[in-house]
Amino acid sequence: MDQKFNMMPTCNLIDTRSRLTLGWTLCLCVAASIWCSPVALGQNDAQGPVPSGMELLDVEPFDIVRFTEKAGGGAVRTLLFNFPNRKLPVNPKGKLVMSLVGLEGNKYEAAWKDIETIELWEKRLQAEVQKMIAAKRFDDAYPLLAILLRDYPQIEGLDQLRADYMYRNAADAMKQGQYKQTLAMLESLRQHDPTFNTQIVLRVIGAVTDKLIQELVDKGQLEYAQKLHARLENDYRDTSLSSIEKWSEIFLKMATEKRAAALAARERGDMRAARALSRESYAIWPRIEGGKALITKIDSEYPLVNVGVLQTATVFDPTRIDNWSARRAGRLLYRTLFEISGAGPEGGEYDFLFGDLEISDDRKELYFDIDLNDLPPTLATANSFNVSELLMNRARPDHPDYSAPWAALLDRIEIPTLTKITAYLNRPHVVPHALLQRKIDGGVFEGKPGSPTGAYRFDVQEEGVTRFVYTGKDLSASQPREIVEIELADSSDAVSGLLRGELDVVDQLFPADANRLRQDPRVNVVNYPLPSVHMLVPCSDHHFLADRTFRRALLYAIDRDTILSGELLANKSVQGCQVLSGPFPAGIELNDPLAYAYDESIQPRPYEPRLGNLLITMAKQQAAALAKRNKEKPPELKPIRIGYPATDIANVACEAIKTQLSLLSELEVETVKLPPGQTWPEPGQCDLVYVMASVWEPVADARRIVGPDGLAKSDSQLVGMGLRMLEMSKNWKDVRDGLRELHRISHHELPVLPLWQLVDSYAFRKDIRGIGRSNVTLYQSLDNWRLSSSTK
């Protein structure tokens, strides 16, 4: 409140009237008792108009002193007074010392009896906020109100002002149909002052939440509608909120209808529909009578697992190094001669499909022991003769299964008995069986070529849903009779489906979604033990991509750290996810044996776009000079087309890469989304392809990545020499040295453009037992999967 005092004539230091009253008696004096002159008084015209409204945000805080008419009237702006608790003194005597705005170097005095009122800064802010609220200028009022709440919380009437602001703002937002903002304001109001217009506030909250839940249901976002309803039940359990009761009845009705449909589907033998409908019923209203029991009954009658995938498989090959979906689904249909089961202290650990393998101490002899009693029916005809034929085919140059490293390694094969094979090697090898990872189909042993040898067979694929059905006859209770892969638009859909119970398992998660999902008690999130290596691989005859200098330019122009941390990891730190300097994994932990191929002394190239531009200029000049010497036309720098598989991670990464490469001078970049299930472009379709490679055993996979017949199809003599030296290694020291030398060569030659490695993860609901926590691929432990129908 402004306080009034006795009046006495004085000069006006703001209004122009001061020029008419300069002859009046002056009551202001300098602190040194020097009376101010007309010239000095005229300087205060520089204070100008008093700021108001939003202008108050741009000036230093000030108080206003207004003088009595007897003292000449007028007012001055001063620096803030240091009153105790910013309260005006009661019945003051003597003089008030002040510093004027614009004349901060001097001190001035005025007799208290000459002062009409003092308007404090916070009171001015308060008055402006009140005006703005009345004018519905809520966005303008907010920053001024925030200053009051922060700096002057003790001011009288502030609590009422804040409540009035939130109440009127909510009312205005509701009129405009902004229901989320209305709810936020009213709930903040209730938190601040639960007694403010309680009945009206609760009535409006009920109406607003009713509309919000209806909107979510109409959009098909039932999960979020239920979450909002559950929160309201918890937060307003001691009140009567209209939307709670209304939607409890609606959700119960919806769940009851789904339950009835589930029972009808079960009655007519449509167990797939019965399973889906029973889970939908329970997800809509977990309190529905008999909901959990119905799920348990249907699962016991027809165990089925829904798996959410980010990419549908169109080819099925568990040995594909560059195709996640082919490797995942291929494990359902086919087995491999040797399958990696995990990481060991030295290289991977492998399972022999037909029995056991022992290696001699000098690592030059392999002893295969075939167990005829532990083979699936599709492989029941296996014996030492046809298995040895598989080993020989890997060494025959004219055979489709030919492997140059195995051919160079194998000396001869002997068959002592019907169940034993001995393979003699020309030299020791640290993991010779890693060279024997090949798909086994029914055509291998007198069956139909391409027919499955796994526990499941392909049934049907339509509209993003692929069904696999169990082929055996010894299905145990609660073991999945059917695996259904459901393609999802992105990882967030996978999370939602898992939480709603529509999905039982998700095979791959966006790293940021994986971190969020770990907090939910209904779900287990598990990291795959081996990371994936992401790279750009040249795949066309683009003239400039054949130039190492140009490839270096591209790598310098990609801010890999920012894309990885900001786009893929959502600014979260995830152990094992890092930028790479070569085509091999760097391991997950410190001194990780998985990193035996990675040379940590080689740092990834930094982000230097200027250097990238310079290198492109150099590449063009070199190409032009060579063309001139050959009397040819200089090559044209054509656009770079980057192909990527239809996955969330690849899409985000490649769009970011495109944006950054497009900043290079004279370079156009396009992205090409490959068809579902396809990870390698058709000839002429792309120039670079984004590859998520499973480089799990670098000593065996190096040639598959950078070799002349590998992904990169490198013709570099240095790369070829590095591969030959590696394949001549006789012990782990030689292997590590050879791989790290190949890492250095690859860093220099850039047969591929290394990006980063990601620690991928899978997730499953806790009612699925036996999945395990060390799967290299999702279906590796499928024989142990069981449904327990625990819906918690």
Automatic annotation (TrEMBL):
Gene Ontology molecular function: peptide transmembrane transporter activity
Pfam families: SBP_bac_5
Gene Ontology BP terms: peptide transport
Domain Solute-binding protein family residue range list: 484-597
Name recorded for this polypeptide: Bacterial extracellular solute-binding proteins, family 5 Middle
Classification lineage: Bacteria, Pseudomonadati, Planctomycetota, Planctomycetia, Pirellulales
